[in-house]
Structure formats: structure tokens, C-alpha cells
Amino acid sequence: MLIDGVFSGGGIKDFALIGAYQVLEEKGFQFHRLAGTSAGAILAGFIAAGYSGKEIERLLDEQNFKIFMDPRNTFLPFPFMKWFFLYWRMGLYQGNALEDWLAEKLAIKGIHSFGDLPEGSLKLIASDITNGKMLVLPDDLERYGIPAKTFPIARAIRMSCGIPFFFEPVKLNLDSGESLIVDGGVLSNFPIWLFDEPNGRKQRPVIGLKISRGHNETPVHIVNNSLNLFEALFSTMQSAHDSKYISRKHEKNIIFIPVEDTKTTDFDLSSDTKIALLEQGRKTTIHFLKNWSPLNIQTNVHSMYR
Fold first, then answer.
1. Cβ distance 137 to 193 under 8 Å?
2. Among 82, 114, 138, 293, which is least packed by CB within 10 angstroms?
3. Which of 39, 46, 45 is nearest to 12 (CA)?
4. Do the beta carbons of residue 252 and residue 210 sit within 8 Å?
5. Alpha-carbon distance 140 to 262, whole Å?
6. Tens digits of residue pLDDT in 146-199
7. Rounded distance, CA 151 to CA 144, Å?
8. Residues in a beta bridge with 299
């Protein structure tokens, strides 16, 4: 069955989404359109490029995520210079290593730019903090005078993954000036609204995969210092827009995958934790499918199988 899929951000916790995707794949679901934010954008991009669930698991399991922590070269020790980078570069790490890795893995499947994919098949969320706007990539690139079809998908995913203060913002140099682009999770960490139709009827079922403590459960933030304050602010921003949007009619089509005690940027994740996250995603999805039916969704029935 053809469905549309939406993947939430969650950093390293998105290993659980891979397990969920594997179950959907095994049950015969195929994604016609995909959307994602932050780490969810990585998964959406790989699926759109033609990677299977097992291939994505292997690809990420073999990767040393610490390589993505790429500070700029300096003759001074990094512990000292990180505050310089944070102030002047607005991020501890460049993010170039992440983008290069994404470009390399997408190229294996012959995918480089949005023009290599069917039109409308992949949509990613980023945040333009210069102009205070949410970006839907590649749709909104034309507004910036940037050709959408030739824009690198790896760069778009990197923009969507730009955790504020962790990675340097991506700079778009335009005739009107420079725009700084950061993590899409600042404005919408779970863009399930992307595939809503004006008439209320969907072209095909939409399933959302969301890292969560469970719907209507809000984590308590313990704030003892400025770093705790930033983490609490970012977490609150991530959930505020999407929590307001998710209603009961959307809730029944979302796989809420509870993940505890794993930080978004825990790049030294152990093998046991990776396995546990994958299994949590698989187990939650199996339970979800036992109670889910596409017949409960207002759709154009004929397009469900096209």
C-alpha cells in the first residue's frame, strides 16, 4: 500500500524511527511522499533515495558519529576556543562533516539534488532565523531566488539538522542580504501538517513517526544553569507548535515512540542502546498496526494504490 510518511526530529534518538520504518517496510507499506525535520530529515532523505530499512540501520551503525563534531582548525586548545566559536561562529561545530557524509551516501544511490527525485516526493523543514520564517525545502527556495531542482539534498538536510549553538548556521547569500538557517525543529519538529489537503481529504493515508514520551505528556525540565536553560527552551520550542496542531484526528495516525534517558546529541551511543532503540521502534509500530486502519482516514481511495 502506498502511504505518505512524516518523521520527527530527535537527534540520535531517531534510531527508534529506523526500527519503525523496517516494520512498515516488512508489512508492505511504500512511501510515495516523505517529510521530516532534523534527524527525521536524514531518514526521510535516505528513504527517498531508495535505501531499505536494513541498509539505513547498517549505514548508521557503522558510522562514528563523533566525526560530525568538526570544530574549526585553531592553534589554541578547543576547550578554550569553543566559547569563541560559540560567540562569533554561533556554533561549536561546522557541520561540514555531516553534509559531506550525507552527500556521499546519497550519491551511492545516484541522488544529488532535488531534481533527481520525483517532484514533491521529499519535503524538509528548516528555520530562517534572519527573517523569522519557517522554510519548507525545496518549495520555498524559489522565493529566495534559488533554483530548487539543482539544490543539493545533502545541504537541505544539513540545514534542517542545524541544532542551534551546536552546529554553525547555514548561510544563504542572497541579493537582499544574508540569511541564517538553523534546525527546523525550532519551528516545527514534526510537520505532519505538510500533507493536509484544503478539502480535508488526503490523497493517500499519512502515517507519522514521532519520538515522544507519549501524547499529552510534557517532560519536566530541571534548570540549574544557562546550558540547562537553553536545552529547556529549545525543547519547548520544538514541541509547542506541533503539540497545538496534533488533534485527535491526527493522533490515531501517529506512531508515538517513547524514548527515555537518551540525549539528542549523545553521539557516543553504545551498541546496546542502538539495539534497544531499534527494538523500541519495532515493538511500538507492531502494536500500532494491530489497531490502525487506513479506512478510518478520509482519502481518495483510488490514489492509495497508485
1. no
2. 293
3. 39
4. no
5. 33
6. 999 999 999 999 999 988 777 888 888 776 778 989 988 888 999 988 988 777
7. 12
8. 202
Q: CA separation (Å) from 288 to 59, 166, 209, 257, 283?
A: 26, 34, 11, 10, 9
User: CA torsion sign, 155 to 160 to 163 to 169?
Assistant: positive
Contact 50, 77 (CB under 8 A): no
- One DSSP character per residue, 179-196 reads EEEEEGGGT-SS-GGGG-
What is the pTM (predicted TM-score) of this model? 0.83
Kindly indicate the confidence band of residue 305, based on its pLDDT and cuts at 50, 70 and 90.
Answer: very low
Cα–Cα dist 213/285, whole Å: 15
Residue 78 identity? F
DSSP, residue by residue, the chain: -EEEEEE---GGGGHHHHHHHHHHHHTT-EEEEEEEETHHHHHHHHHHHT--HHHHHHHHHT--GGGG--PPP-SS-HHHHHHHIIIIISEEE--HHHHHHHHHHHHHTT--BGGGS-TTSEEEEEEETTTTEEEEETGGGGGGT--STTSBHHHHHHHHT--BEEEPPEEEEETTEEEEEEEGGGT-SS-GGGG--TTS-BSS-EEEEEEES-TT--PPP---SHHHHHHHHHHHHHHHHHHHH--HHHHTTEEEEE--S--TT-TT--HHHHHHHHHHHHHHHHHHHHH--GGGS-B-GGGGG-
Q: Which three cell numbers stand for residue 276?
A: 534497544
Catalytic residue numbers, as ranges: 38, 183
